[in-house]
Amino acid sequence: AQSVTQLGSHVSVSEGALVLLRCNYSSSVPPYLFWYVQYPNQGLQLLLKYTTGATLVKGINGFEAEFKKSETSFHLTKPSAHMSDAAEYFCAVIGGSQGNLIFGKGTKLSVKP
Amino acid sequence: DTEVTQTPKHLVMGMTNKKSLKCEQHMGHRAMYWYKQKAKKPPELMFVYSYEKLSINESVPSRFSPECPNSSLLNLHLHALQPEDSALYLCASSQSGLGGYEQYFGPGTRLTVT
């Protein structure tokens, strides 16, 4: 069965610093992986996705993630944090025959001025 | 346009009330999903509709009743809910349930059961 594990329930960075949010996956088949962001009292917004092909995936708002099969990882990075990046971030994998998502527990990103 | 709309935005209901949540998308997507999200938790899948047919029901209590009137609309009928059902209810859609397509989420309905 597919699953994802997000390391660190809370990450705090200074404005302008590197953002690194960690996600490891478990899958018996080539995975479809996603990162979503959720701002308070809002729905989830897709940041980026990996299906096949290039392992470095660029998303919206300056975020990118690299699929590393050897490490079963799909970490999310952004070179320079902005105050507006403060939110909850979810890593997810397609987990079922109907395309339903299996989410990690989420990582709350705080950005200090 | 990648918009999924949900109404109402907020809903307060008593345990004896009947209410409905509505979700709409006009992207031509053929898979639609209901998720429930409690505070500080990830979304949990409730139902999946694929080509307007219910394909997954994640052992959800019968007081939640989904309906897919057409390919653009998804409803969630609520009856005799419990206070523990208070949560954010999210609707999502994707091009298909097959092929690893991404899901697009609506803004959610914040439900409070009193």
Give me some keywords for this one.
A: 113 residues, mainly beta, 11 strands, globular, B: 114 residues, seven-stranded mixed β-sheet, four-stranded antiparallel β-sheet, 0% helix
How does this model look, in words?
The complex is a heterodimer of chains A (113) and B (114). Chain A has 113 residues and is mainly beta. Chain A has no helices and eleven strands. Chain A is globular. The mean pLDDT of chain A is 93. Helix content of chain B is 0%, strand content 56%. Chain B has strands at residues 4-7, 10-13, 18-25, 31-37, 44-50, 53-57, 64-70, 73-79, 87-94, 104-105, 109-113. The mean pLDDT of chain B is 93. Classes of the chains: A mainly beta (113), B mainly beta (114). Chain A binds chain B through residues 32, 34, 36, 41-46, 49, 51, 90, 94, 96-101, 103-106, and chain B through 4, 6, 31, 33, 40-43, 45, 48, 50, 55-56, 88, 90, 92, 94, 96-108, 110.
H/E series of chain B = EEEEEEEEEEE
> What percent of residues of chain B are in strands?
over 45%
Give the N-terminus to C-terminus distance of chain B in angstroms.
37 Å
Mean pLDDT of chain B: 93
Largest interface: A-B, 23 and 31 residues
Mean pLDDT of chain A: 93
Low-pLDDT runs of 5+ residues of chain A are: none
Number of strands of chain A: 11
Low-confidence segments of chain B, given as residue ranges, are none
Q: What is the count of β-strands of chain B?
A: 11
Helix content of chain A: under 10%
Largest sheet of chain B: 7 strands, mixed
Strand and helix order of chain A: EEEEEEEEEEE
Helices of chain A, by number, come to 0
Secondary structure tally, helices of chain B: 0
Question: How many angstroms separate the termini of chain A?
Answer: 41 Å
Write a brief structural summary.
The complex is a heterodimer of chains A (113) and B (114). Chain A is mostly beta strands and 113 residues long. Chain A is 0% helix and 55% strand.
Question: How are the elements arranged and paired?
Answer:
The complex is a heterodimer of chains A (113) and B (114).
Chain A: E1 3-7, E2 10-14, E3 19-26, E4 33-38, E5 44-50, E6 56-58, E7 64-68, E8 73-78, E9 87-94, E10 101-103, E11 107-112
Parallel strand pairs in A: 2-11
Antiparallel strand pairs in A: 1-3, 3-8, 4-5, 4-9, 6-7, 7-8, 9-10, 9-11
Chain B: E1 4-7, E2 10-13, E3 18-25, E4 31-37, E5 44-50, E6 53-57, E7 64-70, E8 73-79, E9 87-94, E10 104-105, E11 109-113
Parallel strand pairs in B: 2-11
Antiparallel strand pairs in B: 1-3, 3-8, 4-5, 4-9, 5-6, 7-8, 9-10, 9-11
